[in-house]
Structure formats: C-alpha cells, structure tokens
Amino acid sequence: MHPVRIDTLDDPRLDDFARLTDVALRRVSEPEGGLYIAESNTVIERAVRAGHVPRSILVQEKWLDSVLPLVADHDGPVFVGPDALLEELTGFRMHRGAIAAVQRPELPTVAEVVRDAKLVVVLEDIVDHTNVGAVFRSVAGLGADAVLVSPRCADPLYRRSVRVSMGTVLQVPWTRIGDWPAAGEELREQGFHLAAMALTDDSVDLAEFVRDVPGKVALVMGTEGQGLTPAAIASADTTVRIPMAHGVDSLNIAAASAVGLWAVTHAQRLASSTRG
Q1: Element (H, E) at 119
Q2: Buried b or exposed e, range 175-193, using 16+ CB within 10 angstroms
Q3: Burial level of 70, CB count in 10 A (0-12/13-18/19+)?
Q4: Chunked mean pLDDT (size 10), the chain, 276 residues
Q5: Which terminus of the chain, N or C, has fewer Cβ atoms within 10 Å?
C-alpha cells in the first residue's frame, strides 16, 4: 500500500471513511460483500494476520511510518492528511491514529466453526456492540473456541465491537447461526450440551454444573435486560445461574460471560488432565 496525501475530501475513494459515527454505522449491518472498519494499529495488524484484505487506510501523519509495514504486502491507498480534515471526514477525532476499510470475509458454516471445539458461546439477540466486543475478548482470553451469534445479534465487525474486543473478533472463529433457537439442534447433533445462562426456578448453580462438566458445552447467553427468550431456555439441556449476593439478581452480560467461561474452561481442563 502506498501513501496518498490529501488536502481536500474530493477523492471518491474516501467515501469508505465518510461519517463513521456510531449512529450512521448502526444503519448498516453486514452489507453483502461489504466492508468493516478496523481502528488502531493493533486491530489493523490482527486483521491482516487473520487474512483479511484492507482496501484503504486513513492515517494521521505521525502514525504513517508505523502503519505502512503492517500492510506492506497489500495494494491500495494509505490516505494521510491534517487531523482537522480527517475529523471532518469521519465525524470523530482519530485518537487511535489509523483506521482501515477492510473487505468482509465470507462467514464459515456453523459446522466449520465448531468442528474441533469443546466450548462455544451462543449470543442471542445482544444489541449492544460494546457487550459483543467484551464477550469476544473474554472468549479469546479465557480459552473458549468459538462464538455463534443469532440472526438478530449485533454485528461483531461493527467498529465499536472490534475496538472493545481489542481485535479479538478477528482471531476468534465465529459465524451467524440460523433459525434460532431451532438451530441449537445442530449443535446437539455435534455433541454439544446446551447450557443456558438464566434465572429460572429450576436453574442449577454454576459450581454444581461444572462439577461434572460435559466434554462439549455451548454456553448460551441472552440479551441485556430481558435475558434469554423462553424458547431458548426451553431448548437448552441445562439452565445455569451464577450465584449472587446482596440482593443483586444478575451481572452484565460481559461480566457474566467471563465468569461462566472461566468456570467451564477450568473444569474442562481439570477433567481432561484427570482422564489423561
């Protein structure tokens, strides 16, 4: 990729970066053959390592020398311009130095994503992009294998999701699952035990669940506020709760995912070492 210095916004190739405010981007969800925005050197580097193809990059002058080596093997413009001009174009101040317009990869099938997995997370209708990104970071950091998102779940490649995840949405295998929760049967056929995280009268304590943890677990988590739908709970093999204190009924989805993932991954590793 090669530097292109700009002092106006007339170049039509700059349209990829025009008005990237959160409100504007929310109106576009996973356009067919479209783009996603990778923000910061770290995220751009992870996108390239994942095999994703940047179409163009917008960078502040002081970050140019650190960005060019990351995309040395790709073609396309690296636009460099004054900070005020870049802010006029994007609609926000570029605190992180660089953003890239990256071609969206084709999503794999569910079977491809879970083929060798022991622990996957299913996100049902999570609407907050920050929470989606935080869950992906927990998945990556705590050693789960993949994420499946329901048809109505927020876009993991939305700019804020990618940023909050620290680019781990580009590392963790994921895809959209089909007609949910009916598509849970596909996971069951692959040998997964569906564990729904929810507060119900018959839910079991997380510690009790992991005491005899299944070899393959799909941890199902629901939307902010309402939690999992009744249909998702009914389709699960077990309903699991995190015990709470001081009258608090539940944790934020990002925190709950970290607690649940740590408990299950830890138990699975202990079970594996015992069998070994």
Answers
A1: strand 119-123
A2: bbbeebbebbebbeeeebb
A3: buried
A4: 92 83 48 75 92 92 92 92 90 84 90 96 94 96 96 89 91 94 94 94 94 96 88 96 84 92 94 75
A5: C
Q: What is the pLDDT at residue 35?
A: 81
**In angstroms, how far apart are the furthest CA atoms of the chain?**
65
- DSSP H helical segments within the chain, as ranges? 22-26, 41-49, 64-67, 83-90, 110-114, 129-142, 159-164, 184-189, 206-211, 230-235, 253-275
pTM attached to this predicted model: 0.87
Judge if the upstream peptide bond of residue 181 is cis by omega within 30 degrees of 0. Answer: yes
Contacts of 213 (CB under 8 A, 6+ apart): 264, 267, 268, 271
Backbone angles phi, psi at 240, to 5 degrees: -120, 140
Using alpha carbons, list the distances in angstroms from residue 239 to 91, 186, 219, 220.
44, 19, 10, 9
Please tell me the predicted confidence (pLDDT) of residue 199: 86
Contact 41, 57 (CB under 8 A): no
Return the beta strands (E) in 1-108 as ranges: 2-5, 35-39, 54-60, 77-81, 98-103
User: How far is 7 from 181, CA to CA, in rounded Å?
Assistant: 51
Four-point Cα dihedral 100, 104, 109, 111, nearest 10: -10
**Predicted local distance difference test score (pLDDT) of residue 275:** 65
**DSSP element (H, E) containing 174:** strand 174-176
Question: Do the Cβ atoms of 68 and 4 come closer than 8 Å?
Answer: no
Phi, psi of 194 (to 5 degrees): -85, 115
- List Cβ neighbours of 179 (8 Å cut-off, separation of 6 or more): 151
DSSP one-letter code for 180: T
Residue with tokens 């210095």: 5
Residue with tokens 């089909």: 178
